[in-house]
């Protein structure tokens, strides 16, 4: 049965270390499917190998959320996303350009990070649920603004959610290709 057409309920919760195997599967299918219209196979493979993946720091900090569904077949993770009070803009544990120093919420922007939705569960408001949870948590931590490194596939969603394009970045992947990332930001009202 196609789970995208089954009646289901959604639950938002914080990710745990036990979720990592399922999160890795979610990230892989999300990137390979949803990025295919925007990036080449070489860019997708390079990003999956060197940038994307679970960021365990987000989990340890309690800032990584998942949405799970209780479709009739089983409970499964169908979306994930987080925020951070650290300097790293994007990338999982395998990404070598990381800076885990803490940000100053009085002068710096919190980071919206690591949003992935299963292709069978797009257009159901799940990314919006995650984004609101992340923004609310960042506000509660004293941040007046947030920023992110958005993939091209995510830019329309973030723009519709009030994020403005700050700059485009060419990420050099270790397989010799480049991948465009759009740095976007939002100031809270």
Automatic annotation (TrEMBL):
UniProt keyword Transferase, yes or no: yes
Domain N-acetyltransferase, residue spans: 10-189
Keyword Transferase attributed: yes
Keywords: Acyltransferase, Transferase
GO molecular function: acyltransferase activity, transferring groups other than amino-acyl groups
Top-level taxonomic group: Eukaryota
Signal peptide: none
Record's protein name: N-acetyltransferase domain-containing protein
Organism: Oidiodendron maius (strain Zn)
